[in-house]
Design brief:
elongated; about 700 residues; alpha+beta; 2 domains; 8-stranded mixed sheet; 24 strands
C-alpha cells in the first residue's frame, strides 16, 4: 500500500518545495495545535457520484405538470369562447368585418289648419367624397376644387369633420349645379371615390320669415343631445329639431332612419354592401295656425315696433327703444293658438343655406332667436287689474257699484310720511277721475281705485288672508306655465310676501327688501312691483275670462298624421282649471273692459275708432290697456289685450312691446289691425287630410327653397 504524501522522505522533491513555506508560516514552526481546524477543500464539499441517487423522474414530473396546467387553461378558455361567450364572440367577429351606416329619414311636413304646407322637404343633389379614396388619391381634392370652385382647404375640412360617419363619404357640396354633376358622371375615372347623392332638405313654401319662432329650426345634433336621447338611433351626423315645433314634436317628425351594412377590410376599405334597410318618412304635424293670419300678425308687429323706434312718445317726449315684442291670437273656446309672433325675428332659410358665426352671434345678441310670446317676462301694469277686480267681486270686499272719489293722489291711511316714503301714490298722469265705480275704473284705468283696493285687502288680512289677489292670479294661471306645446316656456311670477323673500334670498342686491308692507300690496294690486308675466300667460288669462271661466292649455298643434294620411293623434282641448265667474262677478268687469274700447273715456277708444274699419257695434271688442313702469329713465312696457265679439268671443288678441310707451299708443294699434283682418277673414275650421311627405326636387336659384350639408 502506498503511503500518503505526508509519509514520504524529506528528500523528495515535494518536501523540498514545501519546507520553505512551512518555515515561513508563523504556526508551522511550533507544530500543529490540537484545536487547529482541518483544511477543507472543494472535494470535501461535494459528494462523489457513487454517493448520490439519480432521480430523473422528478424533472419530468415538473415539466409535464407545467404543460398540463397550460393545456387545461387553454381548454377552459376555448370552452368560454365557444360555449358561454359564443354570441359575443360571433358579434365581435362580425363587427370586425361589417360596418353599419345610417340612411337619414326625411322629416315629416308641418302644415297649417287648412292643410297648407309651412315646412316641407325638397331633394337636392349633393357631392360626396370617400375619405379612403381621398387618402389613396391625394390629387382628387384638387380636381374637385377645380370643378366646383371650392378650395382644397375647405374640402379637407369637410373630410375631417367628425360630424359625419367615418364609413360614409363626406358631403363636399350641397345643391350641386347640374353641369358639375353631369361632368362627374361622364368622367368617373377622373373622380375616384366621388359620389353624387340626392338628399332631403327642409323647405319653407311661405318663406322662412313666417312664424319662425313657432316652427323652429333643425341643426346638427350635439354630444349633449345624443346623451339626452339615449337608444333612439341618433348618430353624430344626425340632425335634430332645436326650437319650436321642430323640437317639441321631434319624435314624430324625425321618422325612422334606414341602415346600410358594408363589408370592410382590416384597413377599413369597403368591399361591398351586404344589406340595406330603407328609411321611413316622419309623420306630419298639423298646426292650429292660420297661415294668412300669421303673415298678417308678423307684419303688424314688426311694422309697429320699427315705427315706434322713430316716433316721439307724445307723453314722455322720448323716442322709445321698443326693444322687442310679441303678439298672439287665441281661440278662447278651446285654447287653439291661431297665430303667434315675436320680434325681432330671423329667416329660417338661413339655417339651411348657411349662417356664418358672426351672423349667428349678431342675431343672438339681438334676441332674434327668443320667442318672446312664451319666453318674455314683462311687468303687466294695468292689464293685471282684471285679476284684482275678480278678487274684489269674489270676496265681496267692495261692491262693483260702490263709487270711490278718485282724487288722483292716494295717501295710505295712518302712514307716517316722516318715516315712510311709500305713503303717497299718484295716478299715472296725476289726473283725478272723480267718482267712479269698478266698471268705470277699468274703463278709464284708474290707478287710484286699485290703490285703494290693494290697501283694503292688506288691512283686512284677518278676514281675507294675505294673498287673496295672488290666489285669483293662480286660478287664472299667471303664476305658472300655461303648458303650451312649445319648448322653453318661462314661468310667470306674481308678487307676494313669500315671493319677495325668495327673490331676496336668491339675489339680495337686485331685491334688497325681503319684508312686505302695505305699499307692496298696493303696487301689486295694479300690476306693478316684482310681478312679471309672459304674453301667452296673460292672453290665456283673458281667454279664460272671455269664455266664462275655463282655463285651457294653449295648443299649437292639432294632430299628427302618418305618411299614409292616417290620423295618428288628434289633440283635444286640455282643461287646466276654472275661475269662478258668475254673472255678478263677470258682468261688471265685462262692462268695464268693453268701455275701454267703446266709451269715449276709454283708454283705447282713440286707436280703435281711428284704425278699425268694421262696425264696433256689430262686432264689439272688449279689452284692457297696460302701461307698466320699469324705470323712471326708461319708456314703459306697452300692453293691450282684447277679445271679441263680446257677445260670443271667438278671438283673444294680445300685443306687448318692451319699452314701447303707453299701451294705447304702442300696443293697441297692433290689436286693432289684427281685428280688422279677423273680421274680414274669419279663421276657417280645422281640416285634417293626407299630407305630402315625399320630398320634391329642388329648383335651382329658388328664393323659397333651402339647402345645406347633411340631412335635415
Amino acid at each position: 500500500m502506498k503511503s500518503s504524501w505526508r509519509d514520504r522522505s524529506s528528500g523528495s522533491w515535494f518536501s523540498r518545495l514545501w519546507r520553505p513555506w512551512v518555515s515561513l508560516h508563523p504556526f508551522r514552526g511550533r507544530g500543529r495545535t490540537i484545536n487547529e481546524p482541518k483544511p477543507v477543500g472543494i472535494r470535501d464539499l461535494m459528494a462523489s457520484p457513487d454517493e448520490v441517487r439519480s432521480r430523473p423522474e422528478r424533472r419530468w414530473l415538473v415539466i409535464g405538470g407545467f404543460f398540463l396546467v397550460l393545456f387545461i387553461a387553454l381548454l377552459v378558455r376555448l370552452f368560454f369562447l365557444q360555449v358561454i361567450d359564443y354570441k359575443a364572440s360571433v358579434a365581435a367577429v362580425q363587427f370586425n368585418s361589417l360596418r353599419a351606416t345610417t340612411i337619414p329619414a326625411s322629416r315629416g311636413a308641418i302644415v297649417d289648419r287648412a292643410g297648407n304646407p309651412l315646412v316641407t322637404n325638397i331633394t337636392t343633389t349633393e357631392i360626396r367624397l370617400s375619405r379612403a379614396e381621398a387618402a389613396l388619391h391625394p390629387t382628387i381634392k384638387g380636381s374637385l376644387a377645380s370643378l366646383t370652385g371650392l378650395s382644397v382647404r375647405q374640402i379637407s375640412s369637410d373630410l375631417a369633420n367628425k360630424q359625419y360617419d367615418p364609413y360614409q363619404p363626406a358631403p363636399i357640396m350641397s345643391n350641386a349645379p347640374a353641369k358639375d354633376v353631369e361632368f362627374i358622371k361622364l368622367h368617373p375615372n377622373e373622380f375616384p371615390g366621388v359620389t353624387v347623392l340626392d338628399v332631403s332638405k327642409r323647405s319653407y313654401p311661405n318663406g322662412g320669415n313666417v312664424g319662425a319662432q313657432i316652427l323652429g329650426y333643425v341643426g346638427p345634433i350635439t354630444g349633449n343631445e345624443i346623451t339626452q336621447h339615449p337608444n333612439q338611433g341618433y348618430q353624430t351626423d344626425s340632425t335634430i329639431g332645436k326650437t319650436g315645433v321642430e323640437s317639441y314634436y321631434e319624435q314624430y317628425l324625425r321618422g325612422k332612419d334606414g341602415t346600410s351594412t358594408f363589408e370592410v377590410t382590416a384597413n377599413n376599405q369597403i368591399l361591398n354592401a351586404v344589406k340595406t334597410t330603407a328609411p321611413t318618412v316622419g309623420d306630419s304635424v298639423v298646426l292650429n295656425i292660420d297661415t294668412p293670419l300669421q303673415k298678417a300678425l308678423d307684419g303688424y308687429l314688426a311694422s309697429d315696433i320699427l315705427a315706434l323706434r322713430h316716433t316721439v312718445d307724445p307723453v314722455s317726449h322720448k323716442v322709445p327703444r321698443a326693444l322687442n315684442g310679441a303678439a298672439i291670437v287665441l281661440d278662447p273656446n278651446n285654447g287653439q293658438v291661431l297665430a303667434m309672433s315675436s320680434y325681432p325675428s330671423f329667416d329660417l332659410s338661413s339655417f339651411i343655406t348657411g349662417l356664418s358665426n358672426s351672423q349667428y352671434q349678431q342675431l343672438r345678441g339681438e334676441g332674434a332667436f327668443n320667442n318672446y310670446a312664451i319666453q318674455g317676462l314683462y311687468i303687466p301694469g294695468s292689464t293685471f287689474k282684471l285679476i284684482s277686480a275678480t278678487a274684489e267681486l269674489q270676496t265681496g270686499i267692495l261692491p262693483a257699484s260702490k263709487y270711490i272719489d278718485d282724487t288722483g293722489t292716494f295717501t295710505v291711511p295712518g302712514c307716517l310720511k316722516s318715516v315712510n316714503s311709500g305713503c303717497v301714490f299718484h295716478d299715472d298722469d296725476n289726473s283725478a277721475a272723480g267718482f267712479i265705480n269698478l266698471p268705470l275704473a277699468l274703463t278709464v284705468s284708474s290707478d287710484y281705485y286699485f290703490y285703494n283696493l290693494g290697501y283694503l285687502f292688506w288691512s283686512q288680512t284677518a278676514k281675507f288672508g294675505q294673498t287673496p289677489i295672488q290666489n285669483v292670479a293662480a286660478e287664472y294661471g299667471l303664476s305658472q306655465t300655461t303648458n303650451v306645446d312649445l319648448p322653453y316656456e318661462a314661468q310667470g311670477r306674481v308678487d307676494s310676501p313669500t315671493v319677495r323673500k325668495e327673490l331676496h334670498a336668491e339675489a339680495p342686491k337686485a331685491f334688497p327688501h325681503a319684508s312686505w308692507y302695505t305699499g307692496d300690496n298696493i303696487e301689486m294690486a295694479f300690476g306693478q312691483g316684482t310681478t312679471a308675466v309672459t304674453p301667452i300667460g296673460l292672453a290665456n288669462a283673458y281667454a279664460t275670462f272671455a269664455n266664462g271661466g275655463t282655463r285651457y292649455a294653449p295648443e299649437v298643434a292639432a294632430a299628427i298624421i302618418n305618411p299614409h294620411g292616417k290620423v295618428v293623434i288628434r289633440y283635444q282641448p286640455r282643461v287646466l282649471g276654472h275661475v269662478s265667474l258668475p254673472p255678478g262677478v263677470r258682468n261688471p268687469i265685462l262692462q268695464g273692459l268693453t268701455g275701454v274700447v267703446n266709451d269715449p273715456r276709454g283708454t283705447a277708444y282713440g286707436p280703435f275708432h281711428s284704425i278699425t274699419n268694421f262696425s264696433l257695434s256689430s262686432f264689439p271688442i272688449a279689452g284692457k290697456t297696460g302701461t307698466a313702469t320699469t324705470s323712471k329713465l326708461l319708456e314703459p312696457t306697452s300692453w293691450f289685450v282684447g277679445f271679441g265679439p263680446t257677445t260670443h268671443p271667438k278671438y283673444v288678441v294680445l300685443c306687448v312691446v318692451d319699452e314701447g310707451g303707453y299701451g294705447a299708443d304702442a300696443a293697441a294699434p297692433v290689436v286693432a289691425e289684427t281685428f280688422n283682418y279677423l273680421v274680414a277673414h274669419p279663421v276657417a275650421p280645422l281640416k285634417l287630410k293626407a299630407q305630402l311627405t315625399t320630398p320634391t326636387k329642388a329648383k335651382k336659384n329658388s328664393s323659397t327653397t333651402t339647402t345645406t350639408k347633411g340631412s335635415s
